[in-house]
Write a sequence for this structure.
């Protein structure tokens, strides 16, 4: 489903004219199969977030290849990349990244609006999904009226609403207490089992990585496969 | 994203910052209203002057310069030009006409013209018909009013003295013959303008028509008009006085009439090509239009500066909106919103401000224009003591649809342009940086 080959990236740090080159990704290779939960574990500054950002198309790599469902994504333009993201990926962020001015329902509905889907169909889809992830009760609540766990559920529902084949999660439990963390991890597991969804989870938390089928460790810009 | 959803998105953001958007709309409204009202003065003055010129002269009339007398062949040549309705020869009799009716009398000018051509040019009469028989005449609208007896003459004199003391003038409108003159017979004698001339013997004429009221209130027309067939008879009568030379009895004036105002210009050009020295009031209109075009462009330019100042407000509002919503824009981009969509959403917002501002400005401008036309004459009359302002129907401000269109295009266009840079800035927002922003 995802094939990453020899992915390299360097950051320029420092004042203009006196910049230093800091290699962040030093030829990363890995593969994610359909229906897999893959965890990329690593300490802060190891390059794991950069890897996810390049995977998502938020930034471009200097070298290497990324194939998603057989399509080379490393050289897409900004507009093409946005359209590709909307169709192929669902995103779960550490800080939930919900729109503060929209209710839980409207937040989940947002990707469908971007896809240009009509209102009647949107309402039906969102209601169904909210029911599935247990958010019906808080449909009209704004993000600041929800608990951390509920916000992350809304975030996951927003990621799922367009039925993307791949979900990219960046520290999905980073802002949650341990009890809520367990809830979210169970939800991810059940979604994977029930719908065969593919997850790529970036985390520094070893506990989170336990739900993955396969686990990679990012260390100083290099990726090492670990036994699950 | 569906257009309706895009509109909802924009509306939602406007609602969130009601006060700021309101103030920006207010600035846009003031700028656009200033532009419209300022330019409306140019349109209003042009309209007033145009009406003044057009009501003074017949628009389709082409005057012939000098005392050139047209020959029959020349008249036919001119008549053969497309859209020439007629060539009217108006002969002024070089004598004062003394009319006597019952115990009343008046003095007036006498004109002789081909009544067929005369009718074609002057159209409908106020009363009666054009002469068809030799002893029939048409009189000016005020002929009956000037037909006074001795008693009325004294009253007029008194009223005039009184008016003079008040610094005004009395035109005798309350006196004169009050009944219809149609079918009435008058006695007419001519007093040549030459020195030592005697009055001709009296001739009898029947009034069959009364001319239309002149376009100006102050114009008094008590002239007498008769057919050219009367010219030899008049010449004989004038010659009989013994003091008038043959070539001083009549003065001819030739006027060419086009069938419509639009055709005056081509006829004028053709006549000039043929070597005629001709002039039309439309030439004066053309010159005036060029002057007012320049004036209106100038006024619109000055007004546009106000719109540009208002656009700074729109630019600031939109820049603030983009800065405030950096994280939201980042989220939208992160989940797959295209940069084009984000640019469109912000451009729609600035356009919306421009449209609402323009709509309100147009409404306000019409109110100001109406109020100015209603009150300015009264204020000027009170300030200067001249009643000409309220009497002469001066349009101080006029807002034609073209001005609304131009001002709307400028105002909305400027609003869109001022929103363009912030909108571009929104598309350039870095997703990663935006997502890192604190809530």
């Amino acid at each position: 489903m995802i094939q990453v080959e020899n992915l390299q990236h360097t950051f320029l740090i420092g004042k203009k004219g006196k910049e230093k080159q800091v290699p962040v990704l030093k030829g990363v290779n890995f593969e994610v199969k359909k229906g897999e939960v893959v965890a990329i574990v690593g300490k802060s500054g190891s390059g794991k977030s950069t890897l996810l950002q390049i995977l998502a198309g938020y930034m471009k790599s200097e070298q290497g290849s990324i194939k998603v469902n057989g399509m080379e994504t490393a050289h897409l333009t900004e507009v093409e990349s946005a359209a590709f993201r909307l169709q192929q990926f669902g995103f779960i962020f550490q800080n939930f990244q919900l729109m503060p001015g929209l209710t839980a329902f409207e937040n989940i509905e947002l990707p469908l609006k971007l896809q240009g889907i009509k209102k009647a169909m949107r309402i039906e889809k969102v209601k169904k999904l909210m029911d599935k992830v247990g958010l019906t009760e808080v449909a009209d609540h704004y993000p600041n009226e929800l608990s951390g766990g509920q916000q992350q559920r809304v975030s996951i529902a927003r990621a799922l609403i367009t039925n993307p084949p791949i979900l990219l999660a960046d520290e999905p439990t980073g802002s949650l207490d341990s009890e809520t963390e367990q809830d979210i991890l169970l939800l991810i597991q059940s979604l994977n089992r029930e719908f065969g969804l593919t997850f790529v989870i970036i985390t520094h938390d070893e506990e989170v990585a336990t739900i993955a089928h396969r686990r990679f460790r990012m260390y100083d810009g290099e990726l090492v496969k670990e036994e699950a | 994203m569906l257009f309706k959803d895009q509109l909802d998105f924009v509306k939602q953001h406007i609602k969130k910052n009601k006060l700021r958007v309101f103030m920006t709309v207010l600035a846009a409204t003031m700028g656009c209203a200033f532009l419209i009202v300022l330019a409306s003065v140019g349109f209003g003055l042009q309209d007033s002057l145009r009406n003044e010129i057009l009501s003074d002269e017949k628009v389709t009339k082409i005057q012939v310069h000098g005392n050139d007398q047209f020959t029959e062949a020349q008249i036919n040549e001119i008549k053969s030009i497309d859209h020439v309705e007629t060539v009217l020869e108006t002969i002024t009799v070089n004598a004062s006409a003394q009319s006597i009716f019952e115990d009343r009398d008046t003095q007036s000018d006498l004109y002789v013209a081909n009544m067929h051509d005369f009718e074609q040019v002057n159209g409908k009469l106020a009363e009666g018909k054009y002469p068809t028989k030799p002893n029939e005449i048409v009189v000016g609208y005020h002929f009956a009013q000037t037909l006074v007896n001795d008693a009325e003459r004294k009253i007029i004199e008194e009223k005039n003295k009184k008016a003079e003391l008040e610094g005004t003038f009395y035109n005798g409108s309350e006196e004169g013959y009050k009944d219809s003159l149609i079918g009435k017979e008058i006695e007419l004698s001519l007093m040549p303008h030459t020195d030592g001339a005697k009055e001709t013997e009296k001739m009898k004429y029947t009034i069959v028509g009364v001319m239309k009221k002149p376009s100006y209130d102050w114009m008094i027309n008590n002239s007498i008009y008769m057919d050219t067939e009367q010219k030899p008879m008049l010449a004989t009568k004038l010659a009989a006085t013994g003091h008038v030379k043959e070539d001083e009895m009549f003065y001819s004036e030739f006027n060419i009439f086009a069938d419509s105002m639009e055709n005056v210009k081509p006829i004028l050009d053709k006549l000039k090509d043929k070597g005629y020295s001709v002039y039309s009031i439309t030439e004066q209109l053309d010159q005036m239009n060029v002057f007012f075009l320049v004036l209106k462009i100038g006024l619109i330019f000055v007004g546009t500066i106000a719109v540009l100042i208002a656009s700074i407000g729109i630019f600031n509002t939109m820049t603030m909106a983009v800065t405030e919503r950096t994280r939201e824009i980042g989220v939208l981009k992160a989940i797959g919103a295209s940069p084009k969509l984000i640019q469109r959403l912000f451009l729609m917002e600035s356009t919306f401000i421009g449209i609402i501002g323009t709509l309100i400005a147009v409404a306000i401008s019409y109110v100001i224009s109406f109020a100015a036309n209603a009150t300015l004459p009264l204020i000027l009359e009170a300030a200067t003591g001249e009643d000409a302002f309220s009497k002469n129907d001066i349009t101080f401000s006029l807002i034609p649809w073209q001005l609304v269109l131009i001002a709307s295009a400028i105002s909305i266009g400027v609003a869109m342009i001022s929103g363009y840079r912030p909108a571009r800035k929104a598309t350039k927002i870095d997703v990663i940086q935006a997502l890192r922003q604190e809530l």
Q: What stands out?
A: Chain A has seven helices and ten strands. The helical segments of chain A are 48-56, 78-88, 104-114, 119-132, 148-160, 178-195, 206-209. The first strand of chain A starts at residue 2 and ends at 13.
